[in-house]
Amino acid sequence: MEKLPTLQEMEQISRIFKLLSDKTRLKILLALEKGERNVTSIAEIVNMEQSAVSHQLKLLRENRMVRSRREGKTIYYQLDDDHVFDILEQTLEHIRH
């Protein structure tokens, strides 16, 4: 890094790492690696109640880690962009090194 991030950028970085520090949210993000899923599908994969998964998805969506789209009564979630999985992949690479 040539110059330090701004205070606002550092706050955003900190917020992202706080989000990623939760195992449940990590499981949800990894469940979305292969593509979009609805809450029911995610809840089955992470073995949690739908209401708990919905709460975590709301936090992830508010922080641009996931995005959603509605199809009828069903809402589908997916990673917001490839950067989200890149962060996870690089972290995993680091701990396996």
Automatic annotation (TrEMBL):
| CDD domains assigned | HTH_ARSR
| Superkingdom per UniProt | Bacteria
| Pfam family name, one | HTH_5
Q: Cite the entry's keywords alphabetically.
A: DNA-binding, Transcription, Transcription regulation
| HTH arsR-type domain segment(s) | 4-97
Q: What is this protein called?
A: Transcriptional regulator
Q: Name one GO molecular function term.
A: DNA binding
**By its UniProt entry, which NCBIfam families does this protein fall under?**
HTH_metalloreg
**InterPro entries with a match to the protein in the record:** ArsR-like_HTH, HTH_ArsR_DNA-bd_dom, Metal_resp_trans_reg, WH-like_DNA-bd_sf, WH_DNA-bd_sf
List the SMART domains hit by this protein, alphabetically: HTH_ARSR
